[in-house]
Structures are given as structure tokens and as C-alpha cells.
Batch of 2 targets.
Target 1
Amino acid sequence: MKQIKTLLIAALFIFGANQTINAQAKTAHVDVSEIMAKMPAMLDAQKQLEQLSGTYDSDYKKMVEEYQAKLKKYEAESATVTDLINGDRSKEVQDMQKRIVDFRDNAQKELQQKESDIVKPLMEKVRASIQKVGKAKGFQYVLDGSTLLLADGPNLTADIKKDLGF
């Protein structure tokens, strides 16, 4: 009987300690998407990417226009030139098509790489700010609010923006 009493007291103590530990775990949330979208450095980065994309689009359009003009010219002249010349022209047109496709693919890869190079340090800066503010306010967990289904805890988004200077 004495052992049961001891086990019961130990169980109550463990249960109570567990409740105390759970009550002390402080959780907050932050909307990283909103911060990144309104971050001045990110807005500047988006402008740079748009300019680069515009340059690639312009070059791509010139290449396509040149291709279409050459194709139209060759089709119009195909009946009046020899088969050897038509064969050479066909190969030239195929080479132009390949260059256009390669240019488009490389431009997309370069834009993605440039975006990654720009966004990564900004994301690290936001993450560091979240850790700084979260620790300063005594939170043990800070969750990204863009993926939360229920967010009853404090929202640190405004505090993070203030810490980042905007």
C-alpha cells in the first residue's frame, strides 16, 4: 500500500511537472512571405530581375524575328534555287532554331540562379532577425504564419519588420 501511495505521488509530481514545462513553452508566429514581399531590398532585387528579364526577352524576340524573316525569305526563294542551296538553308534554319531554344533555356536558368543568389542572403537576414526578436521576447518557437492553420499566439511580423528597418 505504501508503494502504491509513493507511485501515485510520483505520478502526480511527474504529471504536474510536465504541465509546468508545457505551459512555459512560448510560441509565436510570423509571416515570412509578407516580410519578404515588403522588404525594400527585395523590392530592389525584383526590379533588377525584371530588368534582366526584359533584356533577355528583347534579345529573344530579335532572334525569333530574324529567324522568321530568314525562313520567309528562304521559302519564297526555294523554288528558284538548287537543292544543294535549299539543303544548306534548311540546315541553317535548324541551327537557328537550336540557338533560339538554347538561348531561352539558358536565360531561364540564369534568371533562376540570379534570383536564388539575391534571395538567399535576404532570407538569411530575415531568419536572423526572427531568431533575435524571438529570443529577446522569450519565445522558444516561432512558426512561419503563412503555413499555419491556427495562430492564437502573438504575431511577430511587425516586430521583425521594425528590426529590419522598414
Target 2
Amino acid sequence: MFGDLIGKGKTAAAAAADGALIKEATDATFIADVVEASRHQPVLVDFWAPWCGPCRQLTPLLEKVVIAAKGAVKLVKINVDENPGYAGQLRVQSIPAVFAFRDGQPVDGFMGALPESQLKAFIDRLVGPVGAPSADVEALLAEATESVALGDVGGAAQAYAQILALEPDHLKAIAGLARCYLLNGDAERATEVLDMAPAGASDADLTAVRAAIALAAKGGAETAALEARLRTDPADHQARFELAQARAALGDFAAAADQLLRIIEADRAWNGDAARKELLTVFEAAGLSSDIAKQGRRRLSAVLFS
């Protein structure tokens, strides 16, 4: 569903970063992509051409330092052969030429290829030493959470992708984007996004999404048929168990927990304690601090210790 936001597997963070921080522009889009954008965030404009050897040396380094700056600055690339207008207005006489825009105006620049260390120093002069953009990340996290609550999964995915453009190893954004894919029925892509997390990374949200993916993988029968079986025989624990699995696969963890708790209330040890084991996975998928898990644990304790 969200293929335009990220690529496959380990390339997902890089693709999100490229889309949010680096773009191609034209004379027709210069005002929007550079002038207006620089009123919100400093923008570097790289004037280049395909035949220019030094351009081929400079541009990859520019992209690298812009991504490393974690959202402090954006990069806009303009092919002067196809778009000579603003290069002429800025009196670009040789390329590569880089201009820094802030508040709608060019404020600094250089010509020729520079080493990576000088490019970093150039960005530092423009924006100051780069630190983690925690305020931006927190705002995007709040936006993503609100979007999910409103049922806007696409909006949440975009917010999480923007966070990953700023902080590619942000665990909660990785988990959030994976859950967005899962909510749209793409468990395979959700798993690929989770693979972006550093090896050995531990986070409650990652654990919850992994559990949700495991539940989704089990699938389940049509709920209508299972509900019909239960209307005929409320003591059909196998039908109730399969109904719980089907609900969990759809992400309805509250209904899944309820069905599993009903089995435990009727027969604690049914099928080798299968209902209780499945219930613990549902709690993980919902989030161990969620209301579903808290209320379910209280209800489970009441059954086990009555």
C-alpha cells in the first residue's frame, strides 16, 4: 500500500530519507521547492549537469551529509542544461555551484567540488552544530498517533516515514510504520520494515508488532461460520479458539481476548492450556501496557485464583 514511501528491506530508511530530504527540482518548481521551502527549513540548491565530472563527485557527498544532518537541511538538485532560468538569475558561471537558501533568500554558497569535511562545516555554518531534532520527532510521533486514532493509516505511515528520514534507527517509528503495513494487510512488508531495527534492539512497540504479525500469519476461518457454530453449541471451545484467532488476525485484539478468556473461564486446561498461551500473545500484540492487556490480566487473575 505504501510503496511510494519506502523501498524493500534494509533500503526502507534510505528511501524515506531521500524522499523527505532530497529532491529534483525544475525552474517551474523553484519557488515552491526552494524559496518557499526555505522559509521553514534551510535548503541547499545544487546546480549540476550530467556532463560535469566534478558534479558527479560532489552530489553523492552532498546527499550523504544532508542525510547525516537528520533533517536540519534539505537538498534540491537542478540540472542546468534542462533548467537554465534560475541558474542565470543567480549568475552561475561554472558548475557545480551550491547556494544555501534561508527565509526565502540565498545566504551562502560555493562553487566546485569540496571534500566531505568542508561540506559538513558549510552546513554547520548554516544551521549550527546538528543535534537530534527531538522536537520535530515528537511532533511527528504525536501526528502519527492521532492519525491512527482517526483511522488515517496512510497519514500515519507518512509521519512515521518522515521520522525515519530524520532518525533511521528510531524504534517506535519503525514499529509504527510496520503496524501501518499490517493494518493494510501487508504482513510481508511489515516484516521487512521491522528488519530495519538494529540487531538486538529491544522495544515494547517492536515486540507488540512482531506478536501481531505472528497472529496475522495464523489467519483463521470466516468469522460468520464460527459464530454460527457457537450459537448452536456455546461449549464448542475449538470454534471459539478459531474465532479468537480470526479476530486477532484482523487486529481486533479486544474481541480475541474476550473469546479466549471465555474458554479459560469454562475450562482452564483446555487443549493443553492453548487458550491461555494464545491470550498472552494477544496481550503482547495489543501492547502490554494497553487497556486490553490490563483488563485481560485482571480478568485472567480472577479466573485462575478464584
